[in-house]
TrEMBL record:
<dbReference type="InterPro" id="IPR022643">
    <property type="entry name" value="De-COase2_C"/>
</dbReference>
<dbReference type="GO" id="GO:0008836">
    <property type="term" value="F:diaminopimelate decarboxylase activity"/>
</dbReference>
<keyword id="KW-0456">Lyase</keyword>
<keyword id="KW-0663">Pyridoxal phosphate</keyword>
<feature type="domain" description="Orn/DAP/Arg decarboxylase 2 C-terminal">
    <location>
        <begin position="1"/>
        <end position="88"/>
    </location>
</feature>
<dbReference type="GO" id="GO:0009089">
    <property type="term" value="P:lysine biosynthetic process via diaminopimelate"/>
</dbReference>
<dbReference type="Pfam" id="PF00278">
    <property type="entry name" value="Orn_DAP_Arg_deC"/>
</dbReference>
<protein>
    <recommendedName>
        <fullName>Orn/DAP/Arg decarboxylase 2 C-terminal domain-containing protein</fullName>
    </recommendedName>
</protein>
<keyword id="KW-0210">Decarboxylase</keyword>
<dbReference type="InterPro" id="IPR009006">
    <property type="entry name" value="Ala_racemase/Decarboxylase_C"/>
</dbReference>
<dbReference type="InterPro" id="IPR002986">
    <property type="entry name" value="DAP_deCOOHase_LysA"/>
</dbReference>
Amino acid sequence: MLVTRVIYVKAAEPRSFVILDAAMNDLMRPALYEAVQLMLEIKDNRKVKTQQCDIVGPIFESTDTFARNYSVSSEIAFGDLVAFFFVGAYGAVMSNSYNSRDIIPDVLVKEGEFEIIRQRIDQSVLRGLKDLVLITKPCVMA
């Protein structure tokens, strides 16, 4: 699962844009072969009207698009959290630092508990200006 935040909702015709803080470098499958991941807003919007929007990242590349004409709450707004489900191993393996963006951390969620198993890799590490401090606690899945 990839959890991300809405950073802007841009009204446009024929559809508005929901701009997320995640980008194509965090989840490459939609950019590479137009895969559509199940995306849900992390709040109860069952009784709210919906609207069709394009779900995009902040990189402003034509391929920085998670979904076109996707149904979301008409009340979706800045700061709302959304989750892409069934991201799987491709989310982590294909993530990269395109456009000088940090590589997002991996978080293991098990039985209501969570643990960071790969920390955020920022530009100072990627440029060799700072050493990457590895997480030494082993990850054990029972």
